[in-house]
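Record 1 of the preview.
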Amino acid sequence: MEKSPLQSNLCSEQMQKDMRFMREALKEAKKAFANDEVPVGAVLVLDDQVIARGHNQVELLHDATAHAEMLCLTAGAAHLENWRLCNTTLYCTLEPCAMCAGAMFVSRIGRLVWAAPDLRVGANGTWVDLFSANHPIHTIEVTSGVLQEEAADLMRDFFQKRRKKGESD
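->
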């Protein structure tokens, strides 16, 4: 079935918004890269405004749970003074892992937009698919692949740099 001009415009407007906010998430990922962290960034958006930001800080904090998404959700809850993040959209540069996906369900975000697949622990179909399961409490709308190449290039550059230094993950 063909989309009407109104539907096409709405889709195009949403895609433009998604690209704009994913660019903000990519800025966060670049901060992680500059700090020798795996370059993942996230922003939380409510009513077309960024209300929280996060980037990986696993190495800095010596905390395997300090993923960009987790830090961003925590900052968003602090901003709203509410752990329920209803009607928000989380933009992240990498497909979320199972831990981050679980936090998204519990936080009740409305929508998730991610860029590049996580070939090792992606929880939206690359390793497991937690988002397609019938969750008893909450459903999250998911859009994937927004600015995928930019995010994937950043990850490739980071790991090439690490390999040159002789580091492993």
